[in-house]
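Lab meeting notes turned into a lecture example. A postdoc, R.K., suggested we walk through two folding results consecutively so the class can see how the record format repeats. The first protein's sequence and structure tokens come next.
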Amino acid sequence: MLNTLEKLFEKTLWNGRFVVVVAVVASMAAATAIFYMATVDVVYLVGHMLNYADPALAGEARKLLHDQTITHVVEVVDGYLLATFMLIFALGMYELFVSDIDEARGSKTSSKILVIENLDDLKARLAKVILMILIVTLFEEALNMKISSPLDLLYLGGAIALIGAALFLTHKAEAHGKEIEHPGD
């Protein structure tokens, strides 16, 4: 009797992992919504850019449109990166808790970018996307930054140096991981 209850409890506990499907569906919905919003932003951006060649637009007005356009492009890239983050999160959670995605494993185009073997794989992929979002956000802030003192310039340079160090360390960690996987290659 006790053994039967234990098996039933363990089966219920194991099947409880399917609650992750809620997070997967919600994350896919969020990714789709963010992809949609970023794409709509691109359509409006292109529409506004048609005015850029207008001969009546000159001097400060053209410079303002140029600066606003660059800022919007960076925001669009940020949106697509965030949508990609949500997509990787959804696929990773599904693969870790529910089932392997057979379509991804059988596809030559997946190039293992979305195949998640363990929690460390998911964390590494998400960390890379987060780092890219931070880089794009720093770029966006740098575009809007008004440098009024040498200290402002020093802060900007320090932020760029930290981003460079983060990219370097990420690259080194990835190379180290490959050495562990394939020693002697």
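The second example is placed directly after the first for contrast:
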Amino acid sequence: MIVGVPKEVKDHETRVALVPSGVMALCEAGHEVLVQAGAGDGSSISDQDYATAGARIVASASETWAGADLVVKVKEPQPSEYELLRPGLTLFTYLHLAPVPELTDCLVKNKVAGVAYETIREADGSLPLLTPMSEVAGRMSIQVGAQYLMAPNGGRGLLIGGVPGVAPANVVIVGGGVAGHNAAKVACGMGAHVTIIDKNLDRLRELDNIFNSRVVTLASNTWTIRESVQQADLVVGAVLIPGASAPRLITRELISKMKRGTVIVDIAIDQGGCLETSRPTTHTDPVFLVDGVLHYCVSNMPAAVPHTSTFALTNATFPYLLQLANYGLERAAQENPAIAGGVNTYRGHITCAAVAESQNKDWRELDSLL
């Protein structure tokens, strides 16, 4: 199989979907790898590194996409890449289709087999390809929040950990999954007062044990969210429903009642965001104000630390990529239910119920199409 690795084109997206060790392993397995020139530059991986590992360096994106049977990326195709989608292509990347109906339509129209990192789920319920970037984004959310809490950046002028005699910042994390857990870890380490809100009581018990009661855990409901958010200095939105649009748990009305200069970091923005006021932003223009509340809604946060993110991501994705290359999508999906769960579009149909429901569209079970 020919595997293509294009250079990412999303704003400040400097991660890359494959590292030289992965290229070498694919070549040893009898596959050919095409890497677009400069694809790894942002992650400190040179074209020569890829060539030494056995890749063929190609000059343009069009050559990479056209020459490959299987394209592996980090982020969903951007509008400038839609024309490169074609029938028979397998695309392996973060798709986050729920809030992007136009991309869904394009994949369906062009009969692309779209395999989404974020909906690959193992038998134990884990999301192995979402986990590493959730870890990065969760930890980054507190660093970013601490930066924007400073007065020159529009925040309330708070030091997140306080000092002796002055209280630390109140950090409220909505969602106790991987991202929320990692956000809490960094916030506690910086000395903040931390509250985690989640609807799963077993998860709250687990977090209470992990943090040895150093965080406040609250059961999620409208009242709890309203009271906590109004007292917060930094809010982290870390809610996830795999494949589906994130629930809008923080309303426009609630935003208007928050303290001026409060910072919100919405990690859930890839799935539409968990605030009614959220809209995707970029690393070039990361924040906006609503009623004096600073919103940070960058949809590719981990791209700010591309070296760390690239290696963390490819550590997780490569075993699945190798299965797709060795067996082809159909056999890989039949032999590995986790890969089958990752298939969002196939042969002109949506095959992920959560995506279809979010967009009010029809869908088909993958098994009926194989």
